[in-house]
From TrEMBL:
The protein's name: Beta-xylanase
Gene name in the database record: xyn10B
PANTHER family: ENDO-1,4-BETA-XYLANASE, GLYCOSYL HYDROLASE
A cellular component annotation (GO) from this entry: extracellular region
E.C. numbers: 3.2.1.8
Pfam families, alphabetized: CBM_1 (PF00734), Glyco_hydro_10 (PF00331)
TM region(s), chain numbering: none
Species annotation: Gloeophyllum trabeum (Brown rot fungus)
Catalytic activity from the UniProt record: Endohydrolysis of (1->4)-beta-D-xylosidic linkages in xylans
Pathway, per record: Glycan degradation; xylan degradation
Family, per entry: Belongs to the glycosyl hydrolase 10 (cellulase F) family.
Length: 396
């Protein structure tokens, strides 16, 4: 073998090692191997746990995938940390949700714990009813405390999530056939105990989560069916009594733009205020789809703050149909910028929280089949173009 041939082979080796062969795994939660494929094959997500090298053009979805041989995913160029950008724009925080299982991932925790990047944390699951009162009167705070203690150590604000919600409810609540008086006292005990446990540690609580159907009528869950809309004031009053300094929010999705559901929220907040029920904020979840940010977002945030409450974007993510293409990632960058700029423009919009920061731990792929790549960091903890969109939104 000539020297020239040897050099040529040696130069090729690292590239060959970095690329996954045809049909091999190339990604998914917990995957630490190569994420690009040999020529002619593209890395296509099959689900959140498994991406596979498939012949280019044959995977689900359409368009050019970004991690084909020889190509590389577009990435962010801004070096401004996101909480720093939010504060420079006059906001209280830029934050992220997290969840307990992820806290064993040290590379993940390192970024999460940087308070210049994230000034606020929301526990994605561990303060919910099933986690905190799995059987009646038995409260468990170990997981919630782990996240509360992390934010304390990091100097980050904490949002409590949540007291009363139709989901992740233990069956003793949903199937107890309680009468109105008993369920009222169950809500008061639950919210009072959970909010009381974290007294002094919480910036704001999502006291009531997702009370509405998309048409603006009240959701028919065990609380509404037993107590009518009174369950909302019962929960808010219990939360206020337990931690007078926490801001009390009602949080929902599909209230980003104007429409029946947003109008229902406006009317609810008006009626609570008229009845002197404590209410400090409206949480706009903002689980959005690439290319579909409502054009009325800013106007809608204004109509909320005009009620005399603050507003926060509480669960932002912007999903796409997989595979992620350069074009989709570019549109996603624009969409993040649009959402952040709307919050920036409305002084009563006090902060933005993304629903975790990396595609590695996003709830999207397991909830919306075939969709994902919704967050500003990819599954390898690399910043995506969306990151630049966030920075630009705060600067605009
Ligand atoms: C999600 C969590 O992220 C998932 O881990 C869990 O399996 C289901 O709930 N709206 C909310 C959040 O208010 O609590 C939800 O969180 C996402 C939708």
């Amino acid at each position: 073998m000539s020297f020239k041939t040897l050099v040529a082979i040696l130069c090729l080796v690292p590239v060959a090692l970095a690329q996954q062969p045809a049909w091999a795994q190339c990604g998914g939660q917990g995957w630490t191997g190569g994420t690009t494929c040999v020529a002619g094959y593209s890395c296509v997500a099959q689900n959140s746990y498994y991406s596979q090298c498939l012949p280019t053009g044959t995977g689900t979805g359409s368009g050019t995938v970004t991690s084909t041989s020889g190509g590389s995913s577009p990435s962010a160029t801004s070096t401004t940390p996101l909480n720093t950008a939010a504060k420079a724009a006059g906001k209280k925080y830029f934050g992220s949700a997290t969840d307990n299982p992820e806290l064993s991932d040290s590379a993940y925790v390192k970024i999460l714990s940087d308070s210049t990047m994230f000034g606020q944390i929301t526990p994605g699951n561990s303060m919910k009813w099933d986690a905190t009162e799995p059987s009646r009167g038995t409260f468990t705070f170990t997981q919630g405390d782990q996240i509360a203690n992390l934010t304390k150590a990091n100097g980050q604000l904490l949002r409590g999530h949540n007291c009363v919600w139709h989901n992740q409810l233990p069956s003793w609540v949903t199937s107890g056939n309680f009468n109105a008086a008993t369920l009222s006292s169950i809500i008061t005990t639950h919210c009072g105990t959970v909010v009381g446990h974290y007294k002094g540690q919480i910036y704001s609580w999502d006291v009531v989560n997702e009370p509405f159907n998309d048409d603006g009528t009240f959701r028919q869950d065990v609380f509404y069916n037993t107590l009518g809309q009174d369950y909302i004031s019962i929960a808010l009053n219990a939360a206020r009594a337990a931690d007078p300094n926490a801001k009390l929010y009602i949080n929902d999705y599909n209230i980003e733009g104007t429409g029946a559901k947003s109008t229902a929220m406006v009317n609810l907040v008006k009626s609570l205020k008229a009845a002197n029920v404590p209410i400090d904020g409206i949480g706009v979840q903002a689980h959005l789809i690439v290319g579909q940010v409502p054009s009325t977002l800013e106007a809608n945030l204004r109509q909320f703050t005009a009620l005399g409450v603050e507003v926060a974007i509480t669960e932002l993510d912007i999903r796409m149909t997989l595979p992620a293409t350069d074009a989709l990632l570019a549109q996603q960058k624009k969409d993040y910028q649009t959402v952040i700029a709307a919050c920036r423009a409305v002084s009563g919009c006090i902060g933005v929280t993304i629903w975790d920061y990396t595609d590695k731990y996003s709830w999207v792929p397991s909830t919306f089949s075939g969709q994902g790549a919704a967050l500003p960091w990819d599954a390898n903890l690399n910043k995506k173009p969306a990151y630049d969109g966030i920075v630009a939104g705060f600067a605009s």
